[in-house]
Amino acid sequence: MVYNAAFERGVMMQLAEQFDDLAPALRRMAARLFDLLPFAREHYYHPAMMGSWSIKRVLPTIAPDLDYGNLGSVQSGDMVEPVYFEMVNAETAVERKAKLKEALLTYCERDTLAMVRLADFLAGAGMQRHS
Question: Helix, strand or coil for residue 122?
Answer without folding.
Answer: helix
